[in-house]
């Protein structure tokens, strides 16, 4: 019974509000198909959860992501 947790920032997608409902459906379907193809897992028992994280709550390399991006 696979459980996959996808975390994304809300900045992506249309209007900077995160992934659209259609994009989320594609992610769920794609991950489910991949687990079935590679590991033989049943789609009926595969769980995919998408968490949207505010940009201010995301960090890389010890910095908030906006500060990290400003350095590159």
What can you see in these coordinates?
The protein has 72 residues and is α+β, with helices and mostly antiparallel strands. It has helices spanning 21-39, 65-71; strands spanning 3-9, 47-53, 59-60, 63-64. The longest helix is centred in the middle third of the chain and has 19 residues, at 21-39. The protein is elongated, with a radius of gyration of 15 Å. The model has no long low-confidence stretch (mean pLDDT 91).
What is the terminal separation in angstroms? 40 Å
Helix vs. strand class: alpha+beta
Helical coverage, percent range: 25-40%
Profile the largest sheet. 2 strands, parallel
How many β-strand stretches? 4
Mean pLDDT: 91
Oligomer: single chain
Number of helices: 2
Radius of gyration: 15 Å
Spatially, the strands of the biggest sheet line up as 1-2
Which regions are unreliable across 5 or more consecutive residues at pLDDT < 50? none
List the helices and strands and how they pair.
Blueprint (H helix, E strand, L loop, with lengths): L2 E7 L11 H19 L7 E7 L5 E2 L2 E2 H7 L1
Parallel strand pairs: 1-2
Antiparallel strand pairs: 3-4
Search tags:
72 residues, alpha+beta, two-stranded parallel sheet, 2 helices
Summarize the model shown.
It is built from 2 helices and 4 strands. The protein is α+β, with helices and mostly antiparallel strands and 72 residues long.
């Amino acid at each position: 019974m696979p459980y996959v947790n996808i975390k994304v920032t809300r900045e992506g997608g249309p209007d900077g509000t995160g992934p659209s409902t259609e994009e989320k459906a594609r992610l769920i379907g794609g991950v489910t198909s991949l687990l079935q193809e590679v590991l033989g897992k049943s789609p009926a028992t595969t769980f995919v959860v998408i968490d949207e994280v505010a940009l201010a709550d995301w960090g890389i390399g010890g910095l908030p992501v906006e500060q990290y991006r400003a350095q590159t």
